[in-house]
Design goal:
Blueprint (H helix, E strand, L loop, with lengths): L1 H46 L6 H15 L5 H11 L9 H12 L2 H4 L8 H4 L9 E4 L2 E3 L5 E2 L1 H11 L2 E6 L9 E4 L14 E5 L5 H6 L7 E7 L5 E10 L14 E5 L9 E2 L5 E3 L17 H13 L6 E8 L5 E7 L6 H7 L5 H4 L1
Antiparallel strand pairs: 1-2, 1-6, 2-3, 4-5, 4-6, 7-8, 7-12, 8-9, 10-11, 12-13
Helix pairs in contact: 1-3, 3-10
Length: 357
């Protein structure tokens, strides 16, 4: 009787778990597709033009049903089409990318490591900017993880006597970043309940600095280990700040431009909705098409080498800057959910069906 009761209880738990998983999956897709619909309406309003008519929507749904097994993936591809001005086969819908593709190529136990910024210098020691110190569970440590007393930390900051950047452990898209002079930091007044990384404010290469000097303008590089085991670069874009912002993230008002494989930039830059920002930087008036990237291959090789040291996830987004010696250095990496939809929509598709499915 006891064994029977245990089996019944086990089956009930399994059914409850399946119901919960189904509900969570439904919620994820519903929210994602609702966001796609809202952004598509905003784009149509902004452009005062609609591309996806009844015939186009039918074509997109047919493609989704044939390739991804469900026509319900059409929402994001309709958004891509409004941005691009035409429908492109082999596009990967963002909801498929986020909830099907990424979990398959980036196991959860490894992808979440990219959220732990306090570990980055241990994971990518030869590639990433080294921290001055880190705070873990309220305690301070040097980059080699030696314990530092508060008195030692205060003395270190005083001796440093320069501006530094303080990043929260899992902050994303520039959120929660602090720029402070080391002499003005009261370590007891820092945000509580979060681990922190302390770094020097680095200096970037002259030509990138001229484009916009108030932020470090980073190259977002997407690398992928394909089905043959080769590490390939799917795309490289340059992000830049605008309007005095200290960060280059688009959600903070920054822009981005695409860099073609021949190292030439796109004529136009774009905002966080994929709208055209024009031919010149709005602050410095530098023409985007005039920018030169002779170090394109150096950045690509750098990211391939970094990825080869961490093959546990097949897809990684790298945030790289060119230092004042024109050498690439890694600022951050993202294997959890490296955003792709704007670049995919405007310049993709970047994956073939053999890689997607």
């Amino acid at each position: 009787m006891q064994n029977l009761s245990s089996r019944i209880l086990f089956r009930v738990k399994c059914k409850v778990n399946n119901i919960n998983n189904s509900f969570n999956n439904f919620s994820q897709y519903y929210i994602s597709r609702s966001n796609a619909n809202l952004m598509r309406k905003e784009i149509i309003h902004y452009k005062n033009n609609k591309i996806v008519d009844r015939h186009c929507k039918k074509e997109i749904k047919k493609y989704c049903n044939k390739v991804f097994g469900s026509k319900s993936y059409w929402h994001w591809l309709a958004l891509y089409t409004e941005l691009r001005g035409e429908f492109k086969k082999n596009w990967m819908p963002t909801d498929y990318y986020r909830f099907k593709f990424l979990p398959r190529v980036n196991p959860e136990k490894f992808m979440k490591m990219s959220d732990a910024k306090t570990m980055d210098h241990k994971t990518f020691g030869g590639y990433i900017i080294q921290p001055l110190l880190i705070r873990l569970q309220g305690q301070f440590y040097s980059s080699d993880l030696s314990f530092l007393s508060k008195n030692k930390v205060n003395q270190l900051l005083k001796d440093l006597n320069e501006e530094i950047i303080i990043k929260p452990e899992s902050g994303r898209q520039g959120q929660g970043i602090l720029f402070e002079h080391s002499n003005n930091i009261d370590i007891d007044e820092l945000p509580s309940g979060v681990d922190l990384v302390f770094q020097r404010v680095v200096r970037q290469y002259e030509s990138i600095d001229k484009l916009y000097r108030h932020s470090i303008n980073t190259f977002r590089v997407l690398s992928f280990i394909n089905n043959s085991g080769e590490i390939v670069i799917k795309y490289i874009i340059l992000r830049f700040g605008i309007g005095g912002s200290r960060v280059d993230n688009t959600n903070a008002g920054g822009g981005w431009l695409y860099i073609h494989s021949d190292a030439t930039p796109s004529m136009n830059a774009y905002d966080d909705l994929g709208m055209n920002l024009g031919l010149r930087h709005p602050d410095t008036e530098i023409e985007f098409a005039s920018l030169k990237f002779p170090y394109y291959e150096r950045i690509a090789t750098f990211c391939k080498m970094a990825h080869s040291s961490f093959p546990y996830t097949r897809l990684i987004g790298w945030d790289v800057y060119m230092n004042d010696n024109c050498e690439p250095e890694l600022i951050e990496w993202n294997a959890n959910n490296p955003g792709m939809y704007l670049v995919e929509a405007l310049y993709g598709p970047f994956f073939n069906l053999q890689e997607i499915l």
